[in-house]
Write a structure and sequence with these properties.
This protein has 323 residues and is mainly α. It contains 16 helices and no strands.
Length: 323
């Protein structure tokens, strides 16, 4: 998933406690917006809810809404704000007591993705293990939320270049998703993307392609053909085809990935730029250097539009850092 924490968000949402209340309705609506890929609208709704001061402080409400806000910040590229809000959410939910346990686990798992990007892999793993410890007694080891966090441990292992353990764990979670009585679509697709990138990192592009294809089918059926969750798998599959010198297939996949990223996140978003960067590499491999240079000039122009503090997590970026 380009959106490192999106699948955790979607999976753990199913484990959230059903409870009446206005802020619960807001939470549900925001999560539905995120599932459709409309993060700006979801963010605006959370900000409006947080601006309403309640007579009695509700730490579970505050922590959950802050975590949702951090999710939007993270996906939209505001790395600094996401870090600040995740830490605030974790603090509030930790003080909320037993009612905030599942939301706390969710926030811990999501925040770990940011820590991995910063290179704080041991801190990230510690938070994921803490999230597992909190979730297992409540939902069980085969529940969607538990499997989602377990899968994110594989993400951390990938970031640390521990490819063997990461692949073993990814395959274990994939098998658990396939055995589940109800489809665990978000986690299943997420782990297939993880598996695909692991195989790219270990120079097995021909076996990466089927993993990316299966992930795409699952995500497209669950979220539609234009959701940003599709983009990282499309990029990964394009990289695999380019490695095999199947350039036309790579170009078509990148064209589609670029359209989705542009529509969902904007042309200057790091993920959109990652698509363009991969396209320039394909053009160079094809000997079309002039087109590649023109595209690279466009990338530089768009990068100047970015705030230096803004960033996002994508599998393509993690892969680059591990090359």
């Amino acid at each position: 998933m380009h959106i490192l924490m999106l699948s955790v968000c979607l999976c753990l949402a199913a484990a959230a406690r059903a409870q009446d209340g206005e802020w619960r309705a807001i939470q549900k609506e925001v999560e539905a917006l995120y599932q459709r890929g409309d993060y700006p609208a979801g963010k605006a709704m959370v900000e409006e809810a947080l601006a309403i001061r309640e007579a009695t402080a509700d730490l579970e409400r505050t922590g959950t809404l802050l975590s949702l806000l951090a999710t939007a910040d993270f996906v939209l590229g505001d790395f600094e704000a996401a870090d600040r809000r995740y830490r605030a959410a974790i603090s509030a939910l930790g003080r909320a007591g037993p009612v905030g346990v599942l939301a706390l686990a969710r926030a811990l798992a999501d925040y770990a993705g940011l820590l991995d990007l910063e290179g704080q892999h041991h801190q990230a793993e510690r938070r994921r293990l803490e999230a597992l410890r909190l979730v297992e007694p409540i939902v069980g080891a085969d529940a969607p939320g538990f499997l989602a966090i377990k899968g994110e441990i594989a993400v951390g292992l990938f970031a640390r270049k521990d490819y063997t353990r990461a692949e073993t764990l990814s395959l274990e979670v994939i098998a658990a998703c396939e055995r589940a009585p109800k489809p665990e679509r978000a986690t299943h697709a997420r782990m297939l993307d993880v598996l695909g990138y692991l195989r790219l990192a270990t120079r097995r592009p021909e076996t990466a392609i089927p993993a990316f294809e299966q992930s795409h089918s699952i995500n497209e059926a669950a979220f539609g053909p234009r959701h940003p969750v599709l983009v990282d798998g499309l990029i990964g599959r394009a990289v695999a085809h380019a490695s095999l010198r199947q350039f036309e297939q790579a170009k078509e996949l990148l064209r589609h990935a670029g359209e989705v990223a542009h529509e969902s996140l904007g042309p200057a978003h790091p993920l959109s730029l990652s698509v363009m960067d991969e396209m320039s590499k394909v053009l160079r491999l094809m000997g079309r250097r002039r087109e590649a240079r023109q595209l690279e000039a466009s990338i530089q122009t768009l990068r100047k539009q970015q705030d230096s503090r803004r960033h996002t997590v994508s599998w393509t970026e993690l892969l680059k850092s591990n090359r």
